[in-house]
Design a protein that fits this description.
The protein is an alpha+beta fold. Helix content is 19%, strand content 32%. It has 1 helix and 7 strands. A 7-stranded antiparallel β-sheet has the order 4-3-2-1-7-6-5, with helices on one face. Strand 2 and strand 3 form a beta hairpin.
């Protein structure tokens, strides 16, 4: 379920990164931010395996650059350890952090409803 287009172009972001496999090293994955979801697939195309699909508004915190490697970023899902991804460059990692956090802010603002004072 990783199409190559999005209905929310302002907050669409996609590309290949490497996902940490713990002591096994890193594995190349295709990552998208679309329709207010952070989606990680085994590859790009018509029917790749979806590895992670999480509403960006439900991330447990902002995405951050990793302290040990500026090419790496961490994305916090729930209460467990953050998922770690590696990019081709420090600049690309910074762009991903910015895109994830902007999508998270945008999605969170869309689900907030104004309160009425009666």
């Amino acid at each position: 379920d990783c199409p190559t287009s999005s209905s929310e172009e302002d907050y669409a972001w996609e590309g290949y990164m490497e996902q940490s496999q713990g002591t096994e090293g890193f594995e190349k994955v295709f990552v998208e931010i679309r329709d207010a979801h952070f989606v990680v697939c085994s590859d790009r195309g018509d029917s790749p395996e979806v590895l992670i699909k999480c509403p960006v508004a439900s991330l447990s915190g902002p995405a951050v650059l990793n302290e040990d490697s500026t090419r790496c970023l961490e994305v916090p899902f729930g209460t467990g350890p953050a998922a770690r991804f590696r990019c081709v460059s420090e600049r690309r990692a910074e762009q991903w952090v910015e895109a994830i956090n902007q999508a998270r802010t945008h999605a969170s603002s869309k689900i907030r409803r104004p309160t009425s004072h009666a």
